[in-house]
Write a structure and sequence with these properties.
CATH class: Alpha Beta
Order of helices and strands: HEHHEHEHEHHEHEHEHEH
Largest sheet: 8 strands, parallel, barrel
Structural class: alpha/beta
CATH topology: TIM Barrel
Length: 268
Amino acid sequence: MNDVISEKSAERSTAAVRPLVGVSLKLYFGLAETRQWLAAVAGLDAELALLPRPVDLFVAPSFPALADARELLGPTAIAYGAQDVHWAEQGPWTGEVSAPMLAELGARYVEIGHAERRRHFGETDEIVAAKVRAVTRAGLVPVICAGERQGEDLPTAIEETLTQVRAALAGAEPDSEVVIAYEPVWAIGAHRPAPAEHVRKMATAIRVCLRRHAVRGRLIYGGAAGPGTWRELAGAVDGLFLGRLAHDVPGLRKVIEEIATIQQEKAT
């Protein structure tokens, strides 16, 4: 199989995919503040139903707030999930949370392999693959984070990112649903997203990996994403992974409305 597909072909392959917006709260909110935020997000449900084009939304609060997420988001179309998981289903793993436990809580998505966990907790490609295997076996959707540390040399950046993606996908159960969150490390927490041309070329390469594995995948971009990002990346990626901008629910709403409007424009 040819290792290269055109950006136009990659964009055509996204035409029928519903955009996906994800939000990870990391460790910014306490429990009471998280509950308030979840209640405000739940209030978006009726607005999402009125959008000119459908947009899927999921949020990932801290573990202790997942019960609140089930209570507040369970009756809505907004999905929720966890920021991490352990690879074992059970055993002597003090302080860890398993994929089956997350499934019992009604979680759908699980963030895996974020650059911060790789840097601060020593997570390797092997650990990420084991977590992907556990999550897909439990019927959940892994949000596999991947991205290069430096972006100046594009071929090197692509190979660094693809090494992470290939290893993670090798752990996925056949025909499972996965999300690849492309997050260049140098753009996380930056003042502006990675250049659109850089993301488009990376997205084209990542889609080759997805095509080579027996999975159903979506590709989203994270790294200083916000208003205006989708207009630059629409067609190259299937959604956005938002950070602190989405802590302000009106800011989250603005991004979602922008995506729906642009999708409607593209359809007419």
